[in-house]
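Re: weekly structure request thread

Next one in the queue (296 aa):
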Amino acid sequence: MTTMTEPTTQTLDVPGAVLTYDIRRAEAPTTAPVLFVIGSPMGASGFGTLAGHFTDRTVVTYDPRGVERSTKADPASPSTPDEHADDLHRLIAKVMADLDAGPVDLFASSGGAINALALVAKHPEQVRALVAHEPPLATVLPDREGAMAATQAIHDTYERSGFGAGMAQFIVAVGHRGPMDAAFLAQPAPDPAMFGLPVEDDGNRTDPLLGQNMPSGPHYEPDFEALRAASTRIVLGAGMESEGQMASRGAFAVAERLGTTPVSFPSGHGGFLGGEYGQPGEPDAFAAKLREVLAG
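Done, posted below.
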């Protein structure tokens, strides 16, 4: 049985940031494509369990700019999917050159799925297969205006009142099932204390989720013409337990624009988690499904 080596950590300078990434090499020789496993704003620490299910491959994880070990020149500035896509382009090129490898396979979760779609639209030659799991794209939904207003409001609340208030509003929005209509938008602001979040504002405005990537990620407009023409095999994934939530609805909407059908993955939005951040998913079943999808 193939075993995976301990990860080696490296850095890559990119415009405006320094990226930190980990390479887990399979000990036995393999012809399988290198597998990139990414999220946003989730960093490499969220993918340890999932990476451990692919011991027959070299697996690369990374911290997006401004997240965990990856720094930004201006931590309070927005990070856009196009910037993340350029970071990924440079990182994949570096890894391909260092390992003398061909096009990679890419599993991308949440905001990482949005960034991966931006990457494939511009550099399809770098990616053999993309599994984009639950991209929370407000722009592609039938209730586009309401969804965009809700995600803008999360950022505005954070800027006005700080982390606790912004995160409480985020939790309510991502857990909501169904359209984000006028009734949803008119709800009173949730109390951060209900979720065990701080009520006081600490003055920090550099949070990767609420400050740097909201609303630039959900408000991204994918280049569907380029995606339909790409050589990359693109598969959208949606969690079995996420039905009706914005990220799952985003997967269905993107798949419809690409003329495909989403693949159902076990559990919910974080189905691959094995206790990272205190969140248990169904990582064994999730990894088995991912392996099946990558095999095509």
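The mean pLDDT is 96. The radius of gyration is 18 Å.
Next request, please.
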